[in-house]
What does this fold into?
Amino acid sequence: MTPTHRLCAGGIVITVATTFLAYLGASSSWQYYVSVDELLADSESFRNSRIRISGEVAPDSLHIAPDRSQGTFVLQGASSELAVKFTGPIPDNLAEGIDVVVEGCLQSTGIVQGNKVLTRCASKYSSGR
Amino acid sequence: MYGVTVLVFGQICLLGAFVASGFSAFVSFVGCNDERRAFRKYGLYSSVVSYVLLTFVILVLVLALLTKDFRFAYVAQYCSQLLPWYYGVSALWVGQSGSLLLWAWFLGSLAMIFRFATSEKADGLKECAFGLLMANYCFLIATMVFAADPMAQSIAIPGEGAGLSPLLQHPAMLIHPPIVFLGYAAWTIPFAIITAALISGRLDASWIQQARPWAIFAWAVLGAGVLLGAEWAYEELGWGGYWGWDPVENGSLIPWLLGTAFMHTLMTWRCRGILKKTTVALAVATFAMCNFATFLTRSGIFSSLHAFSQSPIGWLFLALMIVLALAGVFLIYLRRAKLAADNKISVFFSREVMVAMSTIALLLLAIVTCLGTLSVALSDAIVGHKIIVGPPFYNYVLIPTGLLVLMATALAPLLRWGASPSATEKRMLFGSAAASGFAMLAAVGWGVKHFVSITVIGIVVFAIIALVSSLCFDVLRRYPNNYWESLRRCMREKRNLYTGFLIHLGFFGLAIGITGSSLGARRHQVDIQQGQTVEWAGRSICLVEVIDRELPDKFIAEAVLDISDNGNEPFTLTPAQHLHRLQNEWTTEVAIKSDWDGDFYVILHGSSEEGQVSLTLVENPMMRWLWLGGVTMTLGAVISLWPKLRRTKKHRSLQPPRQGSREDLRLVVESATRIANPEIGAPGNPRKHRQRRNINEPTAT
It folds into this structure.
């Protein structure tokens, strides 16, 4: 076997190994990424699955425990709303009226149990015109 | 009236910069042809005009930020009266139009340096490359003129601006974004040079000599930018980590990975004349992925810590990326004959094979990172549901690819270009492997359990022994009678080689830091009363008091903790929460005690009126090695780019290097004896030095 063939063989081996490990990593960490409206339109499909939901924190809905380890709010979509109960680290800039993404799962009660909340970047690359 | 005049002046300058840059790009392309070289001066003059005008634009905006002139819409959006002046300036790169302006200005500055700084007159290759730079420069200005005007006027002038987000009021944010943009701008230059070489068909060594220093500069700057971003996340975001595989983080990592692979394949092309198509493809891909990163941050297509933004500008960069990819493929096909390899890979255990293996690993990691980042869009297109992957997807892939890159890097110093290792080099390889084995056993005995950690320790020890033995061998075989002179001359004459080794050492430090902090990190959530002491991870943590402080722009609540650590000297940490009044936002200010074996990291979540606080305690092993490794890599790149000093003294003549493994071994033993007994073997008489060029000892360029 020439060195080039050995190199190609090694490349194939590492590629196959990487692909397999990527598959393992994906299968252990994938989540559906949906909006509030998409989730409620087909909630049965997403029940008990790992989901990531985007929306806006509804006004007058945010309540954070004094120890900042848990809280509740209503996540607003274009035409519907969803109650969210979350535990875990609370982003510093979590506030009403901002866009957030919640990671968690939709329970049978229709409430999302979230374990992570992502908030908008401090840099605002909004459209200029 | 003054403010409006300045605004109008800025708008005119921006428009003028756009027109001049477009003209410069056009005539520079025309002037590529030697028969039309008269056009070159028009390209040069118009580029200078464009650059000067854009400089005026950036000065106008910086002045407006410093004077808090809310007539500028940009200033009203990102500045406030109470914002310190240095954060006011940093607001330049926080927003859409300001960051584009800064990127364009960086590109213009680098293009001017590229055009003027070399002593050679412009030839067709350089002129074509300059035309490409101007074209990209014009594109950036066009995005501002048509989609994100930094000189836009406020519709109604507010009395107070919206202010800068408290998360961005951090020293790292003063330099992280501009350095990343400088890195993106810098990668334009090697791309322009290689594209010009492909267009002109001049694929000889000249383009490599021109592109290489720019590639090193761009790689170092982008790497420093990525590292600073990680440092900001570690200190400011307050979740105990430094990398979350966020799409925007990935966006800056991917071009850095590809750029690293490009620099090594470039070296292989130079030394062995192989991997030419790979080198060209990597140059184009690196620059294209810089635009991909911009697409990620500005299109709003992804959920990300960074990218809740929606702008048509992002799609422009995606279109540019696609055009670049297609053009790159076309040019490689067009020049496929000239890109054929000059040599074959004749030996498996050779440097070029190690470069090829690490290139495969870096490419795989970049592709997987890209696929993970695009998983939402791809899954929506393929299966009809948007699916996103988490950090385990990336971490699982990082392990095999990272280990492969580490191993290839460790072996490279003792291997040769196009030839098998010599007998001495084989002995050094076996010696390094033996040391590595002992180190791994010692690690197991010391309590290291994870196989990745044990493997990394083994590879790093191997690499250090290999580097040191390679250096010693080089020093001893050249000037056996004067080690310091020999070391000094080795460092000077083979600077490229040894700065490469220094960068590799930094890479090993980075690997130790990443491995330790990823596999050994521990977290513990605790509620603690004032005066109470809790025990965790061999430490006693006592909450002394909770202090509330009022400042003009914020309210601070901080917890004073006294910590004693396994009999070491006690220390105090004060994690805090800041409430920024203008934005009505809380920020977490973590407290970190850093040491060589790891960081102790404390996050304050909240406090109650009864004096109880909620804390998260984090132990991150080996973190300091991560930062040190990154700094060392950047330092190595800076040293390699430093201008060489002229040799002013005549050097002593030297004995030519000897061949033969037995003689080399005798030298090593003799010299080791001399090191142990300095009185033995005083410096001998000077002899004539005979220089010999050997591809396995590349000379400094």
